[in-house]
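ok so dumb question maybe but i'm new to this and my supervisor (M.) told me to 'just get the structure for Riboflavin biosynthesis protein' and walked off. so i did the thing. is this what she meant?? sequence i used:
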Amino acid sequence: MVIIEGHQAIPDLSNAVVTSGTFDGVHFGHQKILKKIVKTAQELNGKSVVLTFWPHPRFVLFPEEKTLKLLTTFEEKAKLLEEVGIDYLVKVEFTKAFSQLSSETFIQEMLVEQLKTKKLIIGYDHRFGKNRTGSFEYLKENSGRFGFEVEEIPRQDIDDVGVSSTKIRQALFHGEVDLAAEYLGRKYSISGTVVKGKKIGTELGFPTANIQVAEDFKLIPKDGAYAVSVMVNDRWHKGMLNVGVRPTVGGLHRVIETHLFDFDQQIYDQPIQVEFIQHLRNEKKFDSLEELKFQLEKDKTTALSLLKEY
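this is what came out, is it supposed to look like this??
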């Protein structure tokens, strides 16, 4: 898949089959549209193109809001789109100035002049342009003038999947990582860098890799303990992870720390990826470190049982 920054020249694409949107999570609902794009492009002997906006429009239009958390970073989204089979990903910088473009200008400049769109496929109720005035009906009425076909994925087709980014976020906020995985079609994951901690886990016999996630907008599941699968040095390892403030040791800040089973390498400053398999328990304050250690032993036994198939 070729990634094109919005300011870069777009190659001359023959029979471009295009869709647009944020596609956060690239979940089952999104995949229905994306697979249609790929299939149609193959039938027309053309190229499949996803036009996406970054940063997320809400970050630009409502900067005072800090509540929106995303399921995917741009890099994660690009990787998932490539796996679906998309040929070109056009990354458009979303700015306040861009948000003021009328739907007519957006269509003429982006879809007609730059992408030379042969066919546009969108999900139901998809809108674009200033104040989201561009609609499927508007596109349909003017398709002859624009010079491309337009197709809408019916509402029932999308609703039958029963998936939305909002549903996935809610599942993760409640620690239901297994439900989120069903919606996504894969395990929910986070990536980051291993940083040094206070080595309290080492003292308890459970050394942990503290994970620093670079993007503050990335959604981290509900505080608590989880069974996880961990990628380090291109190899997957079984483990358990805790998200939270560590109240037993007087922690004040939310941290992410994972213990890898049967692993004793130094991995500071190295990249790490974690897939959430199952929520084990909520975070709680224990009366002593001995009580915490006893609980960690129980967590490990439960996690190993859950991770047998992994």
